[in-house]
UniProtKB/TrEMBL annotation:
Pfam families: Epimerase
InterPro entries: Epimerase_deHydtase, Lipid_A_modif_metabolic_enz, NAD(P)-bd_dom_sf
UniProt domain NAD-dependent epimerase/dehydratase: residue ranges: 10-202
Annotated transmembrane regions: none
Organism this protein belongs to: Herpetosiphon geysericola
Name this protein carries in UniProt: NAD-dependent epimerase/dehydratase domain-containing protein
Length: 307
């Protein structure tokens, strides 16, 4: 008996985590990126090269799929010029099938929030990328309400975990080498972090359960903690002190004059200057999936980058 097909666009850490969960559940998995190559995946996963901006290609690859997962994104500095077109092509392509569409989103659309963010928190973005993500989410669910697609989305906070290179380069690798780690903004304000494997599990679950359709869901995430507390857990795992330096907005702006990706971080620094906390209880209460304890997730991240 041939298992049902699940198609994932994007082979970053979230796409890969989703693929592993689906393979463990006995699903046939096809992943698509620009190169047709990807590492650290189960042998059964098919990896193809393709153009996600081509809605006919999307339709061809997803025609017989049970579910489609949109985990791809343009370069950070190309979000405002390319991201909407990418999602529009995915929606148009998937609309030619009966597949569920599960889209990876984030918290940017909420903007600043003095209370923990829930799925019911209204969009109030004040940044270019936040307004873009809010608009894209509204377009996704408008297509669902119009009956064009059957969609849901997963929103998560800043990632940590195996294969997430930004956290690896700025925090884990320096700590392993006995150097100071780099933190953004203020070290002592509460911040939510989302574990890549929990996000993958959330996406995979929603791809097999129609109860999730028609609304966004926050991926199960551990209780918010400060960056200083995050580093203290890292130090305990490593069994040695870990120093840190904080990078303020002015420093990010200066670095951004030389690196386009860093320049795009400037408007998002508000996330690291005041509490940035999400509430993911709705998903856990509905589907029974709990967040991985933060200590366990950090240890898995350390083990991955160490080995």
């Amino acid at each position: 008996m041939i298992s049902e097909l699940h198609v994932i666009f994007g082979t970053g850490p979230i796409g890969k985590a989703t693929a592993r969960c689906l393979v463990s559940a006995g699903k046939q998995v096809r992943m698509i990126n620009r190169s047709g190559k990807a590492s650290h995946l189960p042998a059964s996963v098919e990896v193809l090269a393709g153009d996600i901006y081509d809605q006919q290609f999307v339709a061809q690859q997803t025609r017989h799929a049970a579910s489609v997962y949109q985990c791809a994104q343009p370069a950070y500095y190309e979000w405002t010029s390319k991201f909407s077109a990418m999602q529009a092509a995915v929606i148009a392509g998937v609309a030619q099938s009966d597949a569920r569409l599960v889209v990876m989103e984030n918290l940017y659309g909420y903007g600043r929030s003095k209370q923990p963010m829930t799925e019911a928190t209204p969009f109030a973005a004040h940044t270019r990328k936040g307004k873009l993500r809010a608009q894209m989410s509204e377009q996704l669910f408008a297509a669902h309400q119009a009956g064009r697609i059957r969609a849901t989305s997963v929103r998560a906070s800043n990632f940590y975990g195996p294969e997430y290179q930004l956290m690896g380069d700025q925090v884990v690798k320096p700590a392993l080498q006995g150097k100071k780690v780099n933190l953004l903004g203020k070290a002592d304000v509460a911040h939510s972090f989302s574990y890549v494997n929990d996000i993958g599990a959330t996406l995979a679950l929603l791809g097999s359960d129609d109860r999730g359709l028609g609304r966004p869901w926050h991926a199960p995430s551990p209780a918010a903690l400060t960056q200083r507390e995050f580093v203290a857990i890292l130090a305990k795992i490593l069994g040695k002190p870990v120093g840190y330096r904080t990078i303020n907005t002015a420093m990010v702006w200066l670095l951004g004059r030389f690196v386009k990706e860093i320049a795009e971080t400037v408007e998002m620094m508000y996330e690291w200057q005041a509490p940035f906390v999400m509430d993911s209880s709705a998903f856990s209460q509905t589907f029974g999936l709990e967040a991985t304890p933060i200590e366990q997730g950090i240890k898995a991240m350390v083990d991955w980058f160490r080995n």
